[in-house]
Design goal:
The chain has 225 residues and is mostly helical. Helix content is 45%, strand content 0%. The chain has one domain. It is built from 8 helices and no strands.
Length: 225
């Protein structure tokens, strides 16, 4: 493949945009027309009630029943860490709770999340089936090179073989969710060197250079005559 499966931390935003751009083309199709009903527990309610109070902290499963089985969580953790592995002082994706985030996301009763649920569950099942065919083991039990062998074929949607189009669509969506989950944690923001949302002892207004740039200052630039 011409495109690596692993996300470069310094070009993460490019990956996110690429993954997002691929979704409308694929229509976020599921890998299977009819997912295993034992895995895809339908939300029976006609509506989803009121939205959660975003100012409260909720324990996992408090808002709605969670979806992933122990096997699916292992597969998710392995794929998360393949996408964003531990590097230097930065932890891997699973170490900061990305699997918990994914489980909450696909368990939510909202339309977009329910669509992602079908895609993710079918994709995780495909990974384990494909791993079994090639190596006789579940995906989470493979070594890094074996995981790479499978993911290299689905990591770049434009170059995926037609029969792997749905698997590539799953990988693109899973990668997008993994990146979103990781880089909104404190560890992920530190990895990006993000310094926003920091309290300042005082605010002296925009710098003069900025005001001049937008035409809100008559003060001449430094060195101007």
């Amino acid at each position: 493949m011409n495109e690596p499966f692993r996300i470069d931390r310094r070009t993460t935003l490019k990956w996110v945009l690429a993954a997002s751009a691929a979704l409308p083309v694929l229509g976020r199709r599921a890998l299977a027309e009819t997912p295993d009903p034992s895995q895809a527990k339908a939300v029976a309610a006609q509506g989803y009630g009121t939205d959660p109070d975003l100012l409260r902290l909720y324990e996992p499963g408090k808002l709605w029943p969670l979806t992933l089985t122990a096997t699916q969580r292992r597969t998710s953790a392995a794929l998360c860490d393949l996408i964003i592995p531990a590097e230097g002082e930065s932890p891997g994706a699973s170490a900061v709770g990305v699997v918990d985030f994914l489980d909450e996301w696909i368990s939510a009763p909202y339309p977009a999340q329910r669509e992602d649920r079908t895609t993710v569950l079918a994709g995780l099942e495909w990974l384990d089936l494909e791993s079994g065919k090639r190596f006789g083991r579940d995906f989470a039990d493979l070594d890094g090179s074996q995981m790479t062998t499978i993911c290299d074929e689905i990591c770049f949607t434009p170059e995926a073989r037609p029969e792997l189009a749905n698997a590539a669509g799953f990988f693109a969506r899973f990668r997008d969710l993994t990146v979103g989950g990781f880089y909104t944690t404190p560890e992920g923001m530190r990895d990006l060197k993000y310094v926003g949302n920091v309290a300042l002892p005082r605010f002296e207004g925009p710098p003069p250079e900025v005001l001049r740039k937008v035409g809100l200052s008559d003060e001449p630039a430094r060195g101007a005559t």
